[in-house]
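Internal QA ticket QA-208
Title: Verify multi-chain structure generation after dependency bump
Assignee: T.L.

Test input:
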Amino acid sequence: MNPHLLIAIPLAPLIAAVIAGLAGHRIGRVATHTLTITGVAIACGLSLYVLKQMYWGGVGTFNGPVYTWLVSDGVHIQVGFLIDRLSVLMMSVVTFVSLCVHVYTIGYMSDDPGYTRFFSYISLFTFAMLMLVMANNFMQLFFGWEAVGMVSYLLIGFWYTRPSAIFANLKAFIVNRVGDFGFILGIAALFSYTHSLSYTTAFAAAPHIAQQTLPVFGGVNALTLACVCLFIGAMGKSAQVPLHVWLPDSMEGPTPISALIHAATMVTAGIFMVARMSPLFEYSNAALSFVLVIGATTAFFMGILGVVNNDIKRVIAYSTLSQLGYMTAALGASAYSAAIFHLMTHAFFKALLFLAAGSVIIGMHHEQDMRKMGGLGKYMPITAITCWIGGLALVATPFFSGFYSKDAIIEAVGLSHRWGSTYAYWCVLFGSFITSLYTFRLLFMTFHGEERFRHAAAAHGHDEHGHEAHGAHEPRESPLVVTLPLIALAIPSLVIGYLTVGTVLYGNYFGSAIMVRPQNDVLAQMAAGYHGPLRLALEGLVGWPFLFALAGFATAWLFFLRRPDLADAAAVKFAWLKRILDQKFYFDWFNEQVIARLGRGLGTGLWKVGDQGVIDGALVNGTAASVGWFGGVVRRVQSGYLYSYAFWIVIGLAALLGWFLVHA
Amino acid sequence: MHDHLLSLLIWLPIAAGVVVLLLGERNIAAGRWLSLIASLATLALCVPLWRDFNTHTAAYQFVQKAAWIARFHAYYALGVDGISMPLIVLTAFMTIPVVIAGWRVISARPAQYYASFLIMEGLMIGVFAATDALLFYFFWEAMLIPMFLIIGIWGGPRRVYATIKFFLYTFLGSVLMLAALIYMYVKAGSYSIAAFQALPLTLAEQRWIFAAFLIAFAVKVPMWPVHTWLPDAHVEAPTGGSVILAAIMLKMGGYGFLRFSLPITPDACRELDLLIITLSLIAVIYIGFVAIVQPDMKKLIAYSSIAHMGFVTLGAFLVYAIVKATASTQGAGMGIDGAMVQMISHGLISGALFLCVGVLYDRMHTRQIADYGGVINTMPVFAGFMVLFALANTGLPGTSGFVGEFLVILASFKASFWYAALAAVTLILGASYSLWLVKRVLFGPVGNERVAKLNDLDGREFLILGALAAVVLLVGIWPAPLLKVMEPSIQHLVSQAIATKIPV
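Actual output:
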């Protein structure tokens, strides 16, 4: 493969981002979005070309350096690319979704004063994400990892005058840094055994590292420690419990980036990373059990929170948490291909759901509360239909793309014999019910039933802020730049699973890019029973996951469409449960009231007591003061009065003579 | 020219400073331009220094030697290796923004102000270039005088307390170092640093010398618990003083550890390395927490400096623990590399952050975080720069702040999991204090009427911050040239550090 072509893939969006960022206000809006869209389109076209070359053209893996970042102590740390079937799939998904989001942004951000800045950021993000997935070494991985986090920080706080937005972006960065703390230790652990940062060296050394013991915590397996540390990084980036707290708040950012960064791409970086590191994780059952349990817990418990939230974007955000939990659980069951497959289908249908939600938000004049919506399907047909397609894919309806990926995960977890797999299986299976419940609740509350926005408009009539009463007009369908990306994403949400399940999941598409040890290979067992996508879907119609989803549909229909009063009654009856869920299991409370407070208290204590009290007060100024005191005493002796000196001379003489007399 | 290049680097800014002083306050326009030209010319002299530097040898280069005080065998001996050369370039580079930053801002006795900085630049370059210990000591002490004046004359309301604290602290340390140098002169019969490095010393002697050096350098770095002079000095110092203090003067301590402690007293270092490592980790964590709660922007950055300098001392002293844990020196050089890069990077980033505070202070005359809020609304370009430098301060990859911390963390894992884990806490603490500062000062709605009236950067300020931003990014994206310059000297230093000097 031509390395120049590969370099062009991340460089095109980077150049566009730099020009848009530095000169955007001078070259104007049209030039800015033309430039950045061209940049991403080039990256997307080239990624798809490379994908085609690798899949149909028989081109092999590319692994080579671009430039030497530094040489220290004989270690060559290079920026370089590893392009195999795993990374090229990620590149294609990232650039395709990014392209859709770029186009959509023209419509969504049209009246925003930060228009050019926004385009600069999302192109910069695309660059950073590409550097992450294309990396062939841990330094570059960490670079991409932090760079996407930085752009996410800038974009969550895009509307920087909103206190909630700048709280959310600080929170996101710091929580991610907690994950990165683990991540960098994981990298350092591997480095300490291989003296190299390249993937290939680390993968080759995995069986050897698995034999080593580190003398910490009473002796732990070195590879387990490294893998768990790396996974802690993934828990931050992919928002796994308990480091998930930043993702719902990240919805403070504009909707296009919720779709691009906080659903389709950046948050899946952790999933991608673990799959990329499969040659390491495969040698540590303990680490994989940890991954499995964390993933399953996230999948189930974060889904529940989606059921009680009323903000349309936050419901989708909890859904994203839950789906990321599914992917993580798949990783923990050694079903890496299933995780990446779900990552791909999820990228399409979740980006679609977010962009559809954005379209609804435009139609509702920036109202996000679903209690003030209802019946919008009539006014926004394209949005409603595409959103339904995304929803059906999300609940894993047979034939839709999400079905092929999610059912595979549930089955794979069921087949796994790893420690924790029974618990995980129940979590992901019941999760189907929850997924279906919150999805249909969202669809019903938004597009069907009573047109509640009319009450909202009436209640909103006397607006103190003076701007025109929101929702007074009937909602209208969004313009073509908004609906076109919806349609472009609806198509893969519908068909990509059917078309690619035989290849990606059961056809050994990934080859050597993903390593699974034979005794862990649950997907191989499933592949033995695979007879084409049609039969799989037909079997799925009577499978447990789909029956649970149907139950969820019925429940949602009853509580949120047919008899909404029942939902209110249940909320009263189970007020204690409602409180726990409204408080999101008290994670935020704990972080803000306990951890943040302790941190600030410790800082103040060390400053006031340690620095000002002990070091400055007692030691430094204390030394100065005692010198002063001593000086004061000595000064008294030197009074300047002759009789005083004479007196002291006599005393001194007497003492001296006395001493001589005694010792003589 | 190469025979006198280092002399030129030292004496050109000093001579220019004297001329500015003689021109006096009445010819200040000429004095300003002369200061700018002299500082640019000094940087220009660094071009041949860097270009013609031989990256394949650890020996001193551009050497120059002349008799100085024959009675004491002290020579005017200069030379640079891979450790001192980058620090000289940093010094020459960072003086320029200081000169430009004072352009319109300093109204009281500007000629003396510029003269102080130019003379200090020459003296600081002298510290890094001296290969004779007595000459080194001369520059080391002499540079305190202009800094003392800068804080004492152009400083804030509590400047007298701050200057006296600063002076006594650093002077106390230096006097002990002088005693150690004289002791070794008596034994070696020469003040050559190379002779000191070759001088066999018993463990007891090394312990005493190590202790004397430790006090001198620990105060300069500064290491916990002798760090409390720094926040006071920064708060009272004018912007330019803070920039030079943070960017260059703190590096003298790190340089001293690398040039004196490790090669001259390797056995004492081996014995006492845990002390330095512990103090470094305390600096990273304790000071990191203290930085979070600072209400004053300059104090916050001052504490952040102490925490970052913890990585310098940690990286420098990892060698013994690595040898003990792995029976190999692999990774030791990386720790020292990381320490060096951290020094350069911290010079750029902390200097830039102090300049940012200066930009705000010149407009609002307050450093209290609570007096700001929503500055981005009125100063978007400035906010862009400050966010960049704050992110660099958190060690974001792609900026220079990442390189040193990354190398030190990688190396420290080889020594011990716990060293790496405690050092890596900086990822969380650094992000907390840097970005919380950004949130409270820059983001949010316009905080008050005075913020609403702020003007964005003028051309002069844009130029300074832009140049610093470019270098911060360049070092982050492509640090290889910097590492290449240092590598032979650092490998040589590792071999010196692990050799024993105890006479058999």
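Spot checks passed. Chain B touches chain A through 60 residues (CB under 8 Å).
Status: verified.
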